[in-house]
Design goal:
This protein has 226 residues and is mainly β. It has 1 helix and 16 strands. The strands form 4 sheets. Strands 3, 4, 5, 6, 7, 8 and 9 form a 7-stranded antiparallel β-sheet that branches. Strands 13-12-15-16 form a 4-stranded antiparallel β-sheet, with no helix packed on it. The protein has a 3-stranded antiparallel β-sheet with strand order 10-11-14, with no helix packed on it. Strand 3 and strand 4 form a beta hairpin. The N and C termini lie far apart (87 Å).
């Protein structure tokens, strides 16, 4: 008779638990934790990743927060199964409106990396977000790409890659060969670099942008149409 009573109690408790589901920047899935009946401590509505110049950028936002201490950002490589702490972002505690968070870190090696959030409450309980995969690929050569958009008005983006840390100059010339702008004149790390050229104060016409590195010059043409 006692066994029957215990079984009956278990059946009543199990339906009270539920999973929290959300959509992330790289697909959708379930969080790895179970919440009991009642309001969710933190409602995570998005979790996205990007990479620029070998720096991983993470963005996430919450709809509401209850007793939220903060988020431990965890990382692991594709070759490892254990998670490491990459950093911590303090939460807002109790708030009934949307909050945006971000975190970034420099990656020193190539390969695939996974990130997740460990959301921690003030009482020490925690839940995990879904995992995001980020591929870090270092350039193997120096390359100056065509600006985009082209033609443009009034600004355009100029992208180039460096295979190692170098002193570089990125200059802009008009059709007569006169230098009209210095966009970069410094030492930059290896990676992908994106520079914005704002031509609001320039006349329409053909311009040339030149990347000068270690005695070599790479030149490309761009067109400003107003």
């Amino acid at each position: 008779m006692k066994n029957l009573i215990i079984l009956f109690v278990l059946i009543l408790i199990l339906p009270a638990a539920k999973f929290a589901q959300y959509n992330g920047g790289f697909g959708s899935g379930y969080s790895s934790s179970i919440f009991t009946e009642g309001p969710l401590p933190v409602e995570l509505v998005s979790f996205k990743a990007d990479i620029k110049n070998n720096t991983v950028l993470l963005f996430w936002n919450t709809a509401t927060e209850i007793e939220n201490y903060g988020f431990e950002v965890q990382r692991r490589s594709e070759r490892n199964t254990y998670w490491e702490k990459a950093g911590f972002v303090l939460g807002r505690g109790n708030i009934n409106s949307s909050v945006e968070y971000s975190f970034n870190e420099k990656i020193k090696s190539d390969g695939a990396f996974f990130y997740r959030l460990k959301q921690i409450d003030n009482d020490g309980t925690f839940t995990f977000s879904q995992e995001l995969k980020v591929n870090v690929i270092r350039p193997t050569s120096i390359e100056l790409r065509q600006n985009f958009p082209n033609p443009f008005n009034p600004s355009t983006n100029i992208t180039f890659t460096l295979n190692k840390s170098l002193d570089i100059k990125l200059l802009v010339y008009n059709i007569t060969g006169e230098q009209v702008a210095v966009l970069v004149d410094e030492k930059l790390n290896a990676g992908y670099h994106n520079i914005t050229f704002d031509a609001s104060n320039y006349n329409s016409g053909i311009y040339f942008y030149r990347l000068a590195i270690e005695g070599s010059i790479i030149t490309k043409k761009m067109i400003l149409l107003k």
